[in-house]
Amino acid sequence: MASTSISPEIILRVREFYTMAYQEIYENKRKQVKSDNGVTDYAIPSYILSTAAVEAFMNELFFAIGLGFLKGSSFEKLSQEEREVLRKASLETKLLRVPELAFDQKVFEPGHQPFQDMSYLIKVRNSFVHYKMAIDAEHKGILDYLAKKGIAIDTPDGPNRFWVSDLSTFEGIRWAHNTIVKIIKEIIDTAVTTNRHPVLISMGKQSKSFFHEIPNFGQNDPWSAWMRAHTKWKKLP
Fold it and tell me: DSSP state, 68?
């Protein structure tokens, strides 16, 4: 798997950030604003890496090696120029168009999960990569959406509100990780059901245990089991 895609390696780094963020909060090195959430410096790189994992997955599995595995598909029938336009398109456009062309059926729908959360994750990533200090209408919309989901900190509006801190949360790392896992798994599952793209089918059969979500912190036993399986840190509930 690692020989064809770097996305699993990037996902592993996000998982490491999640465990490190928990250790940091548990040891009271950072503020724990809620019983299941807290501020962490590991959130920003996790948002950026999570989005990069999906971008790498799409570019490598479709544009680098996908053409030879998708004979007869609408993707294979595109001209080189048309594929190049898609390759340079935004990640949201790639996710909507490329799987549909590769499998000749819709895989994601705007406004529906998991694409909706992926769209917000891309916006979060862009807000940090193209950083602006002021909180504008777009940032406010992102914060409101994620605060309702218990991911961002719902700080009262005002001149002292710093949106970066509100987004830099422990729970945000879990959300970013689980969002990209759902996206990648949906593509892999579609490859399996349509019997297209042997590499993706192989990933689906051989890596079922890899593309799993981090359990909710409130699910004590599943969460503790996941943490013990992914970290050598011993101070766990």
Answer: G
